[in-house]
Amino acid sequence: MIVDEFVNSRSKEIKEIEKSIETKKKQSLIWQRLPHYKRRRNRNYDKRHTKKVKPRKKDRHVLRTHTYFAKRFFMLKLKDKLSIPLNRRVKSDKFIYKFSLRLLVFDESFRGVFEYKRDEQTIEENSDLIVVGDKIISIGKQLNKELIDSKLCSFVLYGKDIDLNILKEDYYIKIIELNSLLEKYKIICYRNRAMKILNTLISNKYTALSLNELHRLSLENNIMTIYDNVQSDIYKQISLSQNDILIDKLNKTPKGKQSKTTILNLNEIYKDKEVSYFVFKVDKGTVSSYTNILAVNNIHIGHVIRSSFKFSSGSVYGLGVTDCNIEVNEILKFKNKQNHFYSGKIIKIF
Q1: CATH code of the domain covering residue 210
Q2: What is the CATH number of the domain that holds 297?
Q3: Structure pTM?
Q4: Which of 175, 193, 221 is the last residue in one of the domains?
Q5: Are residues 213 and 286 in the same domain?
Q6: What tens digit of pLDDT does each residue of 100-127 get?
Q7: How many domains does the chain have?
Q8: pLDDT of 291-325, one tens digit each?
Q9: Start and end of every Pop1 N-terminal domain (predicted)?
Q10: Confidence of residue 155 (pLDDT cuts 50, 70, 90)
C-alpha cells in the first residue's frame, strides 16, 4: 500500500523520465550542435551577424607570381602596389653561391612587358625589341605606338644544359636565346600562364632568384645588370624604396643609438651625365653602398653602387660609378661611415 502511494505521487516525474528516454533527439545548446571545427568563433556562423565583406580581387598583384615569392622572400614594395622579391628568408648569403652552378630562374615581369603592333621603323630604331609575328614586345620601355597588351610576363633562365622541352608550347609566346655570360634564355608569356611556367621550372630542379641573389651572381662573375644602371628608371624605383626603409628604421631608433648612415640618390647625382661603371676590389676591410670613392690625390671621383664578400676569391668586391676618366688597376680609396679609409683597385671597366 505504501509503495502504490509512492508511485502515484511520483507518476508525473516517472512519465517525464520515460518520455526523455524514448525521444532520440537530444536537447542541447546552439554551440553544442555545431561541428567541432566551427565551435570557435561560432558567432561568425550566425547569419544575423555576418558582415558584408568585399571579396579581394584574384589578380590584384602586378607580379603574377607574388604569392609564391611572398612566402619565401622578403618583398620590397615599389610604386603602384608592385612588390618584388628582394632577399631570400635565409640567413646565409652563401646559399645562392652554392646554387650558382645549377639551373636558376628570375621573374623580371615587374619591369613591364608591353606588346605593340609591328612597325619596321620602330624595329630599326630599337634593337632590343622582340619580334613575334606581326607584333613587337618591349621589356621595361614604353613606346609611342598602338598598345595591344601590357599584361605580359618575362622569365630569365640561368645555368647550363637547359632543357626547354619541359615547357608546353601553349605556355609561352616566345623563347629568346641570349648572348650573355649568365643569362641564357628569356621566356615571354601571358599572365595566366606565368605561374604554370614557374611551377614547371621549379618541379624540374630550377631555383627562383631574388634581386639581391642576382646581384650576388653578377658579383661572382664581375658583370653588371640593368638594375645597376643608376640612370635607369627601375634603379630609381628600387633605390628610393630601399632608402625609405632605411629612413624609417633610422627614425625608430633612439637618437643615442643611431649610427652614421649615408643615404644618397645616385639617380639624381648622375642624371644627364656620362658615367662609367667599374668593378673594384678592396684590399682590406669592407665598404657599403653610397660610399665615396676617392683617387690617390684624395679627389672625389664616384660612389659605390653595391659591394659584398666574393666567395670565389675570398675578398670584398663591388661595383662603382663615376663621371671621371679611369683606368684598369688604378688605385682607389674608400671612405666608410667611421671616416676610415680603405684602399683598393679597379679590376674591370664597362
Answers
A1: 3.30.1360.120
A2: 2.40.30.110
A3: 0.76
A4: 221
A5: no
A6: 668 899 998 888 888 877 776 655 455 5
A7: 2
A8: 889 988 888 899 999 999 988 888 999 999 999 89
A9: 6-58
A10: very high
The cell for 192 is: 595566366
Integer Cα distance of 114 and 149 in angstroms = 6
Contact between 156 and 108 under an 8 Å Cβ cutoff? The reply is yes
pLDDT at position 81 over 80:
no
Rounded Cα–Cα distance for residues 313 and 103 (Å): 22
Q: Are 244 and 78 in contact (CB under 8 A)?
A: no
Number of residues written out for the chain: 350
Give residue for cell 537530444.
26
Q: Residue 236 and residue 229: Cα distance in Å, rounded? A: 9
Identify whether residues 240 and 313 lie together within a single domain: yes
